Amino acid sequence: MSSEQTPLAQYIERLRAEEIDIEAMDEQAARLRQDHLEFVLVVAADEPAFFQLMLPGVWQAAASSNRLRLLETANDVMNTIKAAKLVVHQEAVHVSVEQFVSGPEQGAALIPGLMELLKSAVAEFQERLGMGEAPRIH
Length: 138
Hints:
elongated
């Protein structure tokens, strides 16, 4: 691997070698696809020891949804699956994990397991609140 590569490019190269469907979105983010889900990996060029893996918009709330129940459920899931962070933003729930690593080699080795962790958090959330509303098409 070239030391000239950005940290994200190193992640992409390593994850493609593991047959993970990944493509760069910009200089700091990549899209990973697995099981009909789209994850986003963010790796800052100036901080290769830190990355964030997100699964955005995993649960859509109706405008009439009980926001307190959404927040309580997100908190319960975070207490159950400690590493996963759930965020309720507007009418969607997003799940993510943040990790400090020694560098892209260690980080890329963790990504498949973290993808499973995020899917588990989504399953836990859906088990408690159902599948959510269908996303709106504009």
